[in-house]
Amino acid sequence: MELSQKLKNRRKEIKLTQEEVAEKIHVSRQTISNWETGRTLPDINSLVMISNVYEISLDKLIKGDEQIIKRLSEDTKETDMWFIFSLLISNIFSSFIANQAKNLPLKLTVLLLLVQTISMGYIGMNGFNFLQKREASYKKEENIKTSKYTVTLYDIVYATTIVCGVVVIFYTLLSIE
């Protein structure tokens, strides 16, 4: 059975309207309709939210639909590559600022540090979404439920990014004098 038919059947089984599902996963009713008619396919993040709302595992939801499996594989690779590439570029940029601070005018160094801070914030926010959704899918698969705060992969990556940024700023400012 195709994904579109599975989505429609499951929604009807649990007696939800397209509007109710759309509201719960933060998309339009038309998007739900497009998924159920096979005009478009949901992305991985939407599938995770759908599986939560429909109380069905991702495996059962997508099993047998080769088109969605291929797309999810491509989406995951693309997201992974974007995230890794962003972090790599950011680290190269940080190294450049730290090593060239003595040779650059103070105004240019401050401007570069500002650009670095903004780009790290942007990468951090995109990385947050990526890692948070990835972690949610892992927790769902493993049925991990806890009321305590646990350190996540996102926390480690973001803390490392902040520490590196602070170190670069202090190193740069100290090397200018």
Would you give an account of this structure?
With 177 residues, this protein is an all-alpha fold. It has 2 domains: 3-64, 434 Repressor (Amino-terminal Domain) (Orthogonal Bundle), CATH 1.10.260.40; 75-176. The chain has 8 helices and no strands. The longest helix is centred in the last third of the chain and has 37 residues, at 106-142. The termini are far apart. The model is unreliable at 140-147 (pLDDT under 50).
Question: What are the main properties of this structure?
Answer:
177 residues, mainly alpha, 434 Repressor (Amino-terminal Domain), 8 helices, Cro/C1-type_HTH, 2 domains, single chain
Alpha-beta content class? mainly alpha
Unreliable stretches: 140-147
Number of domains: 2
Give the number of DSSP strands: 0
What letter string, H or E per element, gives the SSE order?
Answer: HHHHHHHH
Oligomer: single chain
What's the total helix number?
Answer: 8
**Dominant shape:** elongated
- Amino- and carboxy-terminal Cα gap: 68 Å
- Taking all Cα atoms into account, the compactness measure Rg is 22 Å
Question: Per DSSP, what share of the residues sits in E-state strands of 2 or more residues?
Answer: under 5%
| Main sheet makeup | none
